[in-house]
């Protein structure tokens, strides 16, 4: 809900003069927000927003630092290429050694060696389509047990190593997935706009801005050696302010959602820092994190892990806090005489259903992402205790549980804040008269209490 527009069921929540406008039709207008309440919210959010802006200015990196390419993983030169020809050849004729292996074929390594010796391989000719060597071709042998099999006409990404011998400078690194990924993104954007309309458009704009903050500020600042936790807090706060106000409008209810999200993020940061330190998690658990640490030894990898926990929790937190704030506001609109305790009790019942679904969603999302890892431990027949004790899995457990605790806590925190805010609102005389008149027309509790506005029952 924006602060100035009219929806089908509600009038403006935050008018220029602090008052709403009554309508004669059957829909109840949104309760006006008093200047008193606006001042209280502004006294909290304006200093916070100023602190975020100062943090962005002070920590702004001005671009990621350069380094000499290692040629490992993502840190290698790549070009676009096309598979122009694929022919089947005997593996024995193209492999380095023509001798038949005599190893144990019951093992994965032994069976693979036999396939490479006796099976049918593919000899692919690849043409480089970009860069200084555009038009150059090279060949690559595809073993029968390789997970990625090349096909004629397929678009691929090739790695380039200038220091290697000329016939070994290029090799296939991956498949080019740009078109299907772009198509899927287009379908997603279309679905959001068709269903969400203007709100959907604003959500996509907020998503783009969030991505810019992530790529232009958070990542380069961490690479420059800034404290990952501080960068994550400032960056996540900027994303939160931009996304929430852009999607839901400059209103009191959005401001309460911002406050609830901020308190919950603070709780997640404290819990995450304590348990990452207590569990002695280094954040350096795989090839990618090892490469980062090797290129930039000054980066605090455990701090980077904590930053990931905070940023990863932000998206779901926004959903929970906005939903709970809206629930309290709508309950208050339905019964303006209800006190903050009644509002809290009614809204927390809605929140309990939300907690169950959100926590389940979060845990399953992490489990789905780590499914190959869990499958590997299952194949190894390791005990649950052994699996959970390994740093790779312990990181995901801490990430999931800390984020879930913050999500669970955000429901009562945001609900209480929203209930206190709407029940403490003191509208001016014009707003009180408008509210009383609207309630009298609807047969609400204000009929016979004209002039008392939205004062709760004693």
Describe the structure.
The protein is of the alpha+beta class. Helix content is 59%, strand content 9%. The chain contains 13 helices and 5 strands. The protein has helices at residues 35-59, 91-94, 108-118, 178-223, 228-248, 252-278, 287-295, 301-334, 340-369, 371-379, 384-389, 391-424, 429-441; strands at 77-90, 120-128, 137-142, 155-160, 170-175. Strands 3-2-1-4-5 form a 5-stranded antiparallel beta sheet. Strand 2 and strand 3 form a beta hairpin. Helix 1 packs across helix 5. The longest helix has 46 residues, at 178-223. It is elongated, with a radius of gyration of 29 Å.
Brief write-up:
This protein has 458 residues and is of the alpha+beta class. The chain is 59% helix and 9% strand. Strands 3-2-1-4-5 form a five-stranded antiparallel sheet.
What is the secondary structure topology, with strand pairs?
Layout: H1 35-59, E1 77-90, H2 91-94, H3 108-118, E2 120-128, E3 137-142, E4 155-160, E5 170-175, H4 178-223, H5 228-248, H6 252-278, H7 287-295, H8 301-334, H9 340-369, H10 371-379, H11 384-389, H12 391-424, H13 429-441
Antiparallel strand pairs: 1-2, 1-4, 2-3, 4-5
Low-confidence regions: 1-32, 97-110, 429-458
User: Strand-residue fraction?
Assistant: 5-15%
Task: Give the overall average pLDDT.
Answer: 75
Anisotropy-based shape: elongated
The topology string of helices and strands comes to HEHHEEEEHHHHHHHHHH
Radius of gyration: 29 Å
Summarize the biggest pleated sheet: 5 strands, antiparallel
Q: Residue share in helices?
A: 55-70%
Describe the strand arrangement of the main beta sheet, using strand numbers. 3-2-1-4-5
Count up the helices: 13
> From the structure provided, what is the oligomeric state, counting identical versus distinct chains?
single chain
Structural class designation? alpha+beta
State the end-to-end distance: 31 Å
Q: Would you count the extended β strands for me?
A: 5
